[in-house]
Amino acid sequence: MDTSIFRHFFTFVILCLAQALVLNHINLYGCATPLMYIYFIMLFRRGFPRWAVLLWSFFMGLCIDVFSNTPGVAAASATFLGFLQPYLLEIFTPRESPEDLLPTMRSLGTVRFINYTIICTLVYILVFFSIEAFNFFNWQQWLLNIGGSTLLTAVLILVVENVRKR
After folding, report:
1. pTM for this entry
2. Which of 2, 85, 148, 166 could be joined to 31 by an S-S link, Cβ 3.0–4.6 Å?
3. Which residues contact 132 (CB under 8 A, 6 or more apart)?
């Protein structure tokens, strides 16, 4: 049997537990919360079936919603990112790359992977905090949450990817 399913499931469980037990309790200056679980959605291979990306993304968001008490916010945001992930990956993939390319810092290159990480993180967090706020009454706090969480999450993803690379 293919070991990639077990690897995806293991990554799913580790990131879900890390988010629920540790990262949900971090809120720097009231505006920066790390949402590390989107790294799971970013790691789908280039030729991975789109329906499977959507299902994995939805279930990741659903698990985070259950542990974080954010009814439907993470599931909707994760499903949206899962929908966009193949298209975003295609933008940053070199032309001569294989069809089953795994998006890592080594395969995409450092600059492309950093840009891919920032765009995916920004899209997810923009949708997440827009759904969570559901209004723009306090737009300064909304912008602070988006900027701080995007920066913190992107830095954490790049640190984890750098450690995984070695």
Report:
1. 0.89
2. 148
3. 70, 73
